[in-house]
């Protein structure tokens, strides 16, 4: 006797339809699962057996073969427990086999038969919706997330509940709690930073134009403190962006079950010891890295020069294309990774440069090695570089500064203006830009960066066109000579 | 092209020192006259400050623009800035090596060496091709730098810096020694300030060097700043945040004013501190 259930496997973030076929035949009792499954799926046998027993359902006599098709697709994770159990029960006719038509199932089984949530439910539900399936059997905790994809979630707590539903004895009801959106994370506020007018201004421009920003300076000048406050001046995500971000974070197991939708730009700050797979993603069955988790949000690399060079170089693809491609023998996975990069660094290994009160003790060779770590290609990806010298004591005594929500208002209106129409340069501005290319060490790429930042400045000022003044200010954010590799 | 000069072919100034090199190797296609022209050495620390780098480059640019040959040691820091400044000024510059004439040391300056020979300058060394760079060869190299020049300018030097050795050689041979004053709290200026105390001529503008050669800088119309740029220029040196506080202008306006000053060559920036450009 054969029965079939439908679920979805994820390739990267892409859901693929998987048919779970169960066949119970006469013979010596046995249980085999085939179809390129990983250890977690092999172990499903034990969970399913106990789960079925706990639901007080008979375990079919005979030889059970479960096949997950398509067979050449790698399958991993515990989300296959529920569909496999249902297919076996249908094959044994404990539930009517045709009751499985038109629905998909996903969830992990406990030994006591309870259904546990798994990661990636949003992507799985979207796959179901795309394949014309309108109902998804899943754990109660996953229901809010599944509902975001537009399918009807059938929230169940226990395997017995699923069986009752399939027999037509019970209808699980999904009650949206009306709070599907994740709460706004408590973000540190710009009002807490005193002084640093220049860096604050740079942060606002970077937020408005989504420019990558590098803050350089001696330790203790508040670089990290400022960088951590960037999310607090970013506008909330657009609905489609929120879905994308939620999908990624769900696969990584980072969403809150009761309020899954992530509506605010994510903020990721990996430690500088992070390996290149941790940052761009990787592993045998590829996993999204920090760059992908920061999609539509902010990636902060604190102490940029301390990161391993391979990790930094790996960031060049996402910075250029907005995606990460991970190639494996069994195919490749593509993850979106369109993030805003904010980085901080000292001006030399000992940290004294830029601090009038200290003397740098670095040797010339050490200094060169430090600067060589940042390739020109990487530095070129920063639209804006700001050197933050040590503030004097009287700056620290300055009155509290502007709060984040004020700045965010300006950022929101500037972004709106940039979408509505791109400001054009006036003749004066063009002339100033050409003069700058002539007189300053400014490459073609550098010129393009200055032009981009000038555009954002015009939008922030509410100006119709890019004036000479905007270009002049934009010029002050170009890469300073002391950071250029020699 | 590499040529070898015997002691009798050495430029007269170099031949006049008390232990002139036995042979001098010359790399580059330019006429050997380059070595006979009036020359000034611009030397200093390898790990220099942005201030030192700026001064070295500016001095070398102005000196070379007036036809002086700028001599230095192709090392990192002040030396390299001096060569670059001379190239910026469209003049000729001579690099003296402390290793074999065919070597570029440090290797990172191979490109700089190429530019020096291509723009009419020369690379010289007393060591035949293939000699490895070694620490004890650099003081000997410094005597050639001092020997080729009528005047030596030390831009930045710690106490017991190699640049002070160059200055000592210059003094022994009775050549002029000039030093650029620095902050008395900065270790990088300890050597130069000590030279000044001993009687070296302080350099506060290019004219101080030119005077020794009987040259006069033509009076160029002074670039002038107006509006916010003038206000900002008055308040230098300062960080951008200090300028915001001192001038009462917004951060954006200060940034724009500074960019304008930089473009007009009136100010420059190093590690976040902006300074008015000396001599302009």
Can you walk through the features of this model?
The complex is a heterodimer of chains A (486) and B (280). Chain A has helices at 39-42, 44-54, 81-91, 121-130, 143-147, 159-166, 197-209, 223-227, 239-251, 276-280, 290-293, 309-314, 316-321, 364-372, 376-379, 393-396, 404-420, 427-439, 444-461, 468-475; strands at 2-11, 14-25, 30-34, 63-69, 103-105, 108-109, 115-116, 135-139, 152-156, 213-216, 267-268, 281-282, 287-288, 298-301, 323-328, 331-336, 340-345, 384-387, 424-425, 465-466. With 486 residues, chain A is α/β, with parallel strands linked by helices. Chain A folds into 3 domains: 2-166, Ribosomal Protein S5, domain 2; 190-404, P-loop containing nucleotide triphosphate hydrolases (Rossmann fold, 3-Layer(aba) Sandwich); 421-486, Helicase, Ruva Protein, domain 3 (Orthogonal Bundle). In chain A, the strands form 7 sheets. Chain A has a 5-stranded parallel sheet with strand order 11-14-17-10-18. Chain A has a 4-stranded mixed sheet with strand order 1-2-4-3. In chain A, a hairpin with a 4-residue loop joins strand 12 and strand 13. By secondary structure, chain B is an alpha/beta fold. Chain B contains 11 helices and 12 strands. In chain B, the strands form 2 sheets. In chain B, strands 1-2-6-5-4-3-7-8-9 form a 9-stranded mixed sheet, with helices on both faces. Chain B starts with a strand and ends with a strand. The chains are: A alpha/beta (486), B alpha/beta (280). Chain A binds chain B through residues 195-198, 200-201, 216-217, 347, 353-354, 356, 359-360, 362-364, 367-368, 387-389, 391-392, 394-395, 398, 432, 435-436, 439-440, 457, 469-470, 472-473, 475-477, 480, 482, 486, and chain B through 46-47, 50, 76-77, 80, 108, 186-188, 239-242, 244-245, 250-260, 262-263, 265, 269-273.
